[in-house]
Amino acid sequence: MKRILRLLAAGSLCAVLLSGAVFAEEASGTTASPAEMKAVVLQAGQDFDPAAGESDSKAQLDAAMSKIAEYGMNAVFFPANTSDGALFAGETWPMASSYDLLGYAAEAARAQGLSFYVLFDASCGVDGQGQYGAHGNLSAAAIQSSSKVLGELTGTYQPNGVYLTGYYNQKTAESMSIYRSEGASMGYDNWVRECVSSLVVNASAAVKSAKSDAVFGLVTDPVWANQTTDPAGSATEADFEMATDAYVDLNAIFAWADVDQVMVRCTGSLTDEAQNFKTVLTWWAQTASQYGAGVSAWICNDRLGGDEPGWKAPDQVMRQIIETRAVDGCVGAAYGSLSALDANVGGSTDVLLRYYADQIEEQDILTDLTVSTPEKRTYTTQEPQVNFYGASDPNFPLTLNGKELERNSEGVFSVEMNLEPGLNTFTFEHKEKSVVYKITREVVIIKEVSPSGSMTVEGSTQVGVTVMAYSGSTITASLGGASVTLTEQELTGDTADGNTSSYVPYKGTLTVPAATESQQDVGNITVSGTWSGITQSASGARVYVAALPQQAPGVEGEKGHLVEVTASQARTYPAGVLNNDPNGSCFPLPKGTVDYIVSDKLTYYDDTYGSGEYYILGSGVRVSASSVSSLGEAEWQLSSLSGANSWADGQYVYVSFARSGRKTAYTVSFDGVGYSSSGGVNSFAGATSMVVTLKDTRADTAAPGLASNNLLSGVSLSQQGNDTVIRFDLRKAGSFLGYRAYYDGDNLVFRFNQIPNGLSGAKIYIDPGHGGYDGGTSISGMYTEKTLNADIANRVADILRSRGATVQVTDTSGYVSLDSRVNQSQSFSPHLFVSIHHNAGVSSAKGTEVYYFNPYSRQLAANLSGGVAGALGTTNRGDKYGAYRVTTHMEFPAVLVECGFLTNPDELSKLQNDSYKNAIATAIADGIQNTLTSML
To answer: What residue stretches are annotated with the MurNAc-LAA domain (predicted)?
Structure first.
């Protein structure tokens, strides 16, 4: 009754056309309509030939339906008619085929489990003279004929639904003639629109009368009206508008016709500015929903690979499907071309089917080509190689200069390319995007020479020379007739973090002549480098040898220039070598320590640390000039130890010595430990004692009795000439967790970390590297080192806490300087410090490595490197000596862990996996626990 009332209200034309039209609804075993439509539109003359013989056309239809089902689709749209006639049996219209094509298509579709929908072209039918064909103008006769045929067709074939096409009207001389005979009283404009509305109203009524649960839908063009034409229209700039060019009155149609669905023929891509896919589909969904109707998208996949904006990219269809799922009220999509699916342009169909099978992630499809490194597209460099890092959609190929690149499962790639002298062009192509690099290479073998500038050194000093040059070069350095071949080394320290340069350090020492009565000008350090048959040279610092220095006083009456340590802890360096590199075999002097200087101010400049100024002290070490202040000339005197004491608390054991006289300097060493020239330790496992040699000091007291502790077994004092030797014996060889020396008034206090009972009672500081604006290594902005560092650090902390440890983690939600990290860790007073990082390098580089600085950190480094590599089944790159800012303190063992390489696509892929990250965290926690347990 509601439908009849609508017809009457719609106007006389509608009411007259359907008077007495009743179509029987027949029962049938049709396939249910799908929850999400995944349909294919079969095109006459393309997917099958209506004019072919019966056996040939049936074979074509069988093949088409089988292919549609094989693709995992669940529905098919089949044309009911063409301009040549009907494709179904009936007496009303002539047939364009020799048999009932529609009936056979319905059977073939249902045999494959496909829902069957009919496309009815209302622009083809019988006109007022009873002639069948394609007509551009609507008339009462055409509307009545189409409606009658639609009712018969729906009742006979029982499709899941019928979608109307070709229901538009035009203003032509012919339409004016029809108007004068059928609707002159309505006004021409009103009549032209009324014809369209009447056709849709009558068609929907015919379909619903024949099969009440049949879906009645409209196939539309992209744009009903641009907003510039009608404020209610879409934000588009289409040339064709249904409202003005086809006279479609949507309000009337939706108000009086039973329209269930609108299928929008989306000819525009997601990048089309005139009729953007998302804009169009969203507008139709919002408009249709006001009348309780849904929408679906007619995907114009036959455009794929073409030159229209956006259609060249093979992922365009996939992106459109993702959008259909995101638009409220959209029930799915129909692909306008089976042959385009078969063509599988750029692998698009393969990807589509994997997406429907939930085998790929939407995020992958939405990933465009990004090449994050290098940042500049055109530049000049001296590097012999370039490292490219980036991300892409793993479902479609990526090529570099026409050759396909290997990537990980997320589409991340890392590739090194050699650079020839001159211009090098690299073109990445992926989907429809290209990224082009133009890199000009200048061959510069020697990049930097340290030291540089001008420097004055003591006689017979070994001057450290560091040259940054191409890996694989032969580098020699010369000074004043002496020459040395430098050794290629691995880049370590803070400057190495994230560095993938082909320049590596070459190091060696040049010994200057012995001092004479006057200053000597030895000349410039000269460097020669040969690489790939090319030889280049460069100059370093100009070197002067100071005149014979005043010796440190050693007997009463002798004088010297006295200085006092003003830094809280003054870093010391080897006296016989001049460079800026911290050295793990040299231990700090506490504030208040005094000593004589036995050199002029020495200078050394390099590009890593800048300008360093130093004094050599009488105790045999070198200190930064900024860490001491002058006390002027002073006579030599012998100090003494006048008392000793020991006490302990929960974490520390203390040993204190009362000093009379000056607070003279001392050196620290460990029995049973050997060092390399750089300061790295061969092994700390054999360490039995920490030995402190107090300069110019007499022991006038007995060694103290030790407070109860689990670290030290005894303390002894002995005299060596003018020096006092304090030996702190370890209860267990190699079991040592650092110390801090300081003055409390006139008392020199040594504070030692006791060994915690495993993790119970242990204090651990975890420092995730980078943070805030400092992201560390980054791959296309998608994978940043700071995020991964923090993730694993928090996992480690949770595990350690669950095992009884007290843990502090650096908050890296904002930027944290290296000095701040050191200060925070020292304030926490941990037993161990672990900094967590991830590496960068060539794409083939993989595995775990751990850096240490002070000698008693090496065992922790070895345990972590081996443990993490073993747990992950990756390469153990080993425990390595390196002077990172966060590890170059002596109060506790401190290491920096490189868990894996973000620039290795396989390792990066694994590092996105929770179980892999848990394995890293567990291995780090185990390494910490094993280190502490082994010391008990």
So the answer is: 822-929
